Amino acid sequence: MKTMKLATAALAGALLAGSALAQDKPKELVVGIATFLSGPASVFGVPGRNAADLLIEEINAKGGVLGVPLKPVYVDEGAGTNQLLSEYRRVVQEQGAQVMLGAISSGSCNALAPVAEDLKVVNVMWDCGTQTIFEDGKWKYSVRTQAHAGAEMMATLLYLMKVKPDFKSVAVVNQDYAWGRESWALLQAGLKALKPDVKVVAELFPKFGAPDFSTEITRLSALRPDVVISTSWGGDLDTFVQQAAARGLLKQSTFVLPLAESSLERLGNVLPEGVIVGSRGDHYWLHPKHKNTPDMQAFVKKYKDKTGVYPIYPTFHMQQALTGLQKAYEKAGAAAGGKWPSREQVIAAFEGLEFKSLTGTITIRQDHQGLEDQLLGTTRRVPDYPFAVYDKMALYPGKLVTTPIGEKSLDWFAKVKPDLVTDKSIETFDYAK
Amino acid sequence: MARQLVFGLALTAALAVFPLFSPWSTVILTVALCEGLAALGIMVLLRAGQVSFGHGLFFSFSAYAVAFLAAARFGHEALVLIPLGMAASGLLAALVGLFVVRYRAIFFGMLNLAISMVFFSLLEKLFPITGGADGKRVPRPTFAGIEFGREQFELATFYLTLLLCIVAALFVARYLLSPGGKALEAIKSNETRLEYLGVSPRKVLYGAYLLSGLLAGLGGAIIALVSGHVTPELAYWVRSGEFVFIAILGGIGGVAGPFLGALMFQIIRGYAAVHAPETWHAVLGIMLLVIIFFAPAGLYGIVAGRKREEGGR
Amino acid sequence: MPPEMLLLAALDGLAYGSLIFLVAVGLSLIFGVLGIVNVAHGSFYAIGAYVAAASVLALGAAGLPTWLAFPALLASAALVGILLGGLTEALLLRRIYGKEEVLQLIVTFAVFMILEDAQKVVFGVQPYFANAPMNWLGTVEVFGIFYTGYQLILMPLVALAVLLGLRFFLRRTSFGRAIVAVTQDREAATAMGIDATRVYLITFIIGASLAALGGALASATTSLTPGIGAGTLVLSFAVAATAGLGRIEGAAVAALLIGLGRSAAVYFAPEFDVLIPYLIMMVVLLIRPQGLFSTVQTRKV
């Protein structure tokens, strides 16, 4: 037992020595990236990885971060949380990753945050949605470079109130897991505050990955709600929309699909006009303000050449995470007098950091939560593309729709005021070629 | 037996020193040992010719029991939580066993699968209680009253797991040599003869089922603590399939087999995760086919250099 | 709840049950004849779906008329069944018929793992769908609710045709009778000149083709993503086990039962729809371990 304690102490010492203050520049900066490479969520994970490959190549071609090239190591989130946790540890401890980008699902994100604290590794939550992470916990080493579910759902709600103020009944069909449940809880709280007389006629939570929504659609056809909300995504959303469209449901009710941006191209001519769509942020490759900037055009072209499809929101989230990381290193490096910053200095540099993304500006708050604008629109068919595009867009500033520091989103939604719908800081755009 | 002991000792010694040289491996080795424990439970049943495609049930049941107890700050102590989790799974196995020991072969496997899938669906459905598919966090408990930091806790848990594995392996080895263990082989070869001898096959199988549930429960309790998170995926049928996979990979000739299989499984998976992150399932599948067709006695059979006593039925 | 809602729920259950039946009956047939529970069945379903979707999309891209998609669905199913099913049986399963059941199960489990990844490498991870056949058949109105003709009429018809076809094949054709003979007594059948190896191969191909046909039919109504095979497999296990493994008509009844149970759940207890198939299976197995439609020593198939 005594030798074991000695060995433990020696080990701990060795590990501590590894993370001292400002150090010499390493040969390369290993960045571990947790993303879905298998399972249904790989519809987001693989585009994220493709974007990361492309962007890291670009960063390295320009000399890397503070002159150090990045080296990505991928970890599969689809292998299950327990496997993800041990892989994550291995990448940090054995492969020497100084920064981890993790992850996509809120389950993984919640599980990884304490591990990152343990390992004292910078953890950039590159695609995490759940608002609870920084509202229920304080994580020194984790930071989020985009909005959270609170901001996304608030903007969705405000947009729905703006374009269809007179609806009386609403039904929800969400995937049965944390995202589906939490996003509906938020929307429901907000609806109660803004439109207390609205009737919720059905709350359906079909199994994640369900292959068939016939029964749900029959029920909705019979109930005839004015509005059908679904925060589903990926294959589930595609299946639901396809089956609903084939049976005329999309014409009967107004559909609100806050994640549909990621399905627009695949759904092609299935999605009719008049559907409310969003993208978990202000990203859209046809963003009314940024679609013609050289950076955006270069990114879209490169991505399309590589993958054959247009970029969707996870690729923009990856771009934000990597850009934020680069800027934080530069800021921390400058503060350390040109030396290679320690992990602690990097994470400190994130606080208050402001950087440009492809579609706007991201600000990292003191609580490590990012402020990001939200773009919503209504689908329209145009001859330019074989799929629906955004029209009647509204751009909600991140500051307006993000839960203030120290408040919990659910409470904040419950006391939202109707004048937010018509706030002057909201910009609007129509589709233009 | 002597050969088994020498082999077991060598394996234990190798395992005991490994984490000291490569600290990153502590958790992975602990996970491997936990899966080895579950596979050891499967091996006991395999001795009777029965295969369960639902032992994820016991694995996940104790893991969730530990998660709930730890979250409720009830007995926030690893040395209390592990036996409690194991006992919870033992109770469940005692209950489920009452039904399933009446069935044999494919029906035995199917029923186990059905029950574990009901539990899996419940874990996913009861979102407000279980956290749904996202699972639950397990706060790090004290260890023997001491609040350890991460590395120390991981090392301590690893050595505790190793110790428990040795105890479990020795116990199972003795059990297999006992009359009850010998009767298991008879269930596989000729159950009627067993009845003529006045031995109740159901009782024999019930004992084995209880033991296998306890072993899977022990593994699940530790895995909840060491990974700090539990998800319904622990109960999914693919996970149960992996236990059977590990048992076959390691070989059921000796109690070291499942642990050998679990280590190999982790090594292949880890290696494949680095070099073929998108096709590690296929790598495992090919490995499994190679073992079945070219080394049917499993890794243990290769290492111990013995032929499996009986291959056919 | 108005009474017509019950009918509406039943219509949804019928379409869903038809699809599971196609997959489950293949599983059941293979077990009845070869005595193997084929875990790779889920992969045959998934790959059948992907191949069918790819060929329907290719037809569309070539500007060919949409009705051609229907023969394309059938052809894809047969192709997958013959190629993948045939290879699996001839290269792997044939070598382990004498061995323990556990090994047979594990071999198909390994095939499943390999095929799941192969499917991902070939077809990618983005959702894939080809809904032209569904849209081409249009909708049917029942009590003011629109159903797709594809799900309401075509799928149950195909399921019925498969059920009757299998019955006829096994009872009235000489090869079908050979299959039944091998199932009942392999040695006696072999002694009478029946080529058991061939019977096994062809049965496995038929079973695999049925799984692929289920996938091909589903490809018009659902998005194909990684993991669809695993979900369908467990469901068809539940149907086959509820019916009694090896029971063909039983599989039809059990599939209908589970389909109706599930859609009733969406109306009355939406929180429990996923539990229904497993609960039904568990209860049936506990009361009648051999399944609803088997007696212990009865003939299979």
Structure at a glance:
The complex is a heterotrimer of chains A (433), B (313) and C (301). Chain A contains 16 helices and 16 strands. Chain A has helices at residues 2-18, 42-61, 81-93, 106-119, 132-136, 149-163, 178-194, 214-223, 234-246, 249-252, 264-267, 294-307, 313-335, 343-350, 398-401, 409-414, and strands spanning 29-35, 70-76, 99-101, 122-125, 142-144, 169-173, 199-204, 227-229, 254-257, 276-278, 354-356, 361-364, 370-371, 374-380, 389-396, 427-429.
Outline of chain A, from the CA principal axes?
A: globular
Q: In the CATH classification, which architecture of the largest domain in chain A applies?
A: 3-Layer(aba) Sandwich
- Per the CATH scheme, the topology name of the largest domain in chain A is Rossmann fold
Beta-strand content bin of chain A: 15-25%
Spatial sequence of strands, sheet with the most strands of chain A: 7-6-8-9-10-14-15-16
Mean model confidence by pLDDT of chain A: 89
- Label the structural class of chain B: mainly alpha
Structural class by helix and strand composition of chain A: alpha/beta
Radius of gyration of chain A: 22 Å
Helix content of chain B: over 70%
Uncertain stretches of 5 or more adjacent residues of chain A: 1-21
Classified by CATH, the class of the largest domain in chain A is Alpha Beta
Q: The biggest beta sheet of chain B, please?
A: 2 strands, antiparallel
Describe the fold and architecture.
The complex is a heterotrimer of chains A (433), B (313) and C (301). With 433 residues, chain A is α/β, with parallel strands linked by helices. In chain A, 43% of the residues lie in helices and 17% in strands. Chain B is 75% helix and 1% strand. A two-stranded antiparallel sheet of chain B has the order 1-2. Chain B starts with a helix and ends in a 9-residue tail after the last helix. With 301 residues, chain C is mostly helical. Chain C contains twelve helices and two strands, in the order αααααββααααααα. In chain C, β1 and β2 (145-148) form a beta hairpin. In chain C, α1 runs antiparallel to α11 (248-268), α2 (41-61) runs parallel beside α4 (101-123) and α10 (228-243) crosses α11 (248-268). The radius of gyration of chain C is 19 Å and the shape is globular. The chains are: A alpha/beta (433), B mainly alpha (313), C mainly alpha (301). The A-B interface holds A 4, 7-8, 11-12, 15, 37-38, 73-76, 79-83, 85-87, 89-90, 92-94, 105-107, 110-111, 114-115, 118-119, 176-178, 181, 207-208 and B 20, 22-25, 27-28, 31, 124-125, 127, 131-135, 137, 149-152, 155, 159, 223, 227-229, 231, 233-234, 239, 269-270, 273-274, 277-278, 280-281.
